[in-house]
Amino acid sequence: MKYRPLGNTGIHVSEVGFGSWQLGNRKDWGEMNDDEAIRLVHEAINQGCNFFDTAPNYGLGKSEELLGKALVGKRDQVIINTKFGHHSNNTQNFDVNLLRQSLEGSLKRLNTDYVDSILLHNPPFHFLNGESPHYELLERLKEEGKIRAYGASVDSSVELFELLETTNSQVIEVMYNIFHQEPAKAFQLAKYKGVGLIIKVPLDSGWLSGKYNAQSSFEGVRGRWSKEQIETRAKLLSKLRFLTNDGTAMVQAALRYILACQEVSTVIPGTKSIQQLYENNSATEKEMSLDMVKKIQRFWEKELQNQPLPW
């Protein structure tokens, strides 16, 4: 495993992190018992992964609880990122008066007295502006030692620019993958300002694993896709066959494309099995060529720049 700086925070994170949405989250991601989840976290650490991303609403708090159990005696080996705004009781509320309470709940579930970073979890746009009272409180929480850094989780360059230009965010999580390249417009500014970028949804919720086709059906959170959207993704996937002509797995290619961006600190694919963990981590074994990077960029410009896919 290779490591990169998380912006100017002084924290170094594994290039491939561990997305924990699936831990304890049978509703959205299928069955995984607690022992399997804990073994998965332990194996990730053994493989060199040190960055774990979670949130209070993942599995209605179960994700944080399982991480807390798995990391007993290992807290000093890992970096934990959690969020605020989507709560463990399945509600959304970004009221600043709930921020400290939410963080304390996360700390209890995670069995720790601090998190390395906390993010506003895809909040309404006006909460991304530095005038929002959240940022004053986040600075206080940082001074108190309950967090080391803060920022927000967003989906677009417009949101990225707002955070970068109006707040002192040190860490930002953003959706970015071969199908969704629009946020890259703001990456250079993030690097200039020393902000660490965490890349979420790097495999487009599994599509860029190469495992699905036009006949695939989905449950849970992925049930959001219509038949037409599934067919569109399948057609786009067929146009990416050039990525695997040399024997490279689609997962490796998808993650290597993201890691080719030096502005990126870490990618956080979801992991439901030891096999997926190995597949994800194998992306760090080789770097993508500049020619291939440019070919993927041209694919997006032709196919998706003016016709973006819904998440």
What's this entry about, in short?
The protein is of the alpha/beta class.
What does this structure look like?
With 311 residues, the chain is α/β, with parallel strands linked by helices. The chain contains 11 helices and 10 strands. It has an 8-stranded parallel β-sheet. It has a two-stranded antiparallel ribbon with strand order 1-2. Strand 6, helix 5 and strand 7 form a beta-alpha-beta unit. The radius of gyration is 18 Å and the shape is globular. It starts with a strand and ends in an 8-residue tail after the last helix. The model has no long low-confidence stretch (mean pLDDT 94).
Which tags fit this structure?
311 residues; single chain; alpha/beta; 11 helices; 35% helix; two-stranded antiparallel ribbon
Tell me the total number of β-strands. 10
Specify Rg, calculated over alpha carbons: 18 Å
Q: Mean pLDDT, rounded to whole units?
A: 94
Distance between the termini: 29 Å
- Global shape: globular
Summarize the biggest pleated sheet: 8 strands, parallel
Q: Could you spell the SSE succession in H and E letters?
A: EEEHHEHEHEHEHEHEHHEHH
Task: Give start-end ranges of low-pLDDT stretches.
Answer: none
Q: Quickly count the helices.
A: 11
* Strand percentage: 5-15%
Structural class: alpha/beta
Strand order of the largest sheet: 3-4-5-6-7-8-9-10
Helix content: 25-40%
Q: Could you outline the blueprint of secondary structure elements for this entry?
A:
Blueprint: E1 3-5, E2 12-14, E3 18-19, H1 26-29, H2 34-46, E4 51-53, H3 62-70, E5 79-84, H4 99-110, E6 115-121, H5 134-143, E7 147-154, H6 157-166, E8 171-175, H7 187-192, E9 196-200, H8 227-238, H9 250-259, E10 264-267, H10 274-281, H11 290-303
Helix pairs in contact: 2-3, 3-4
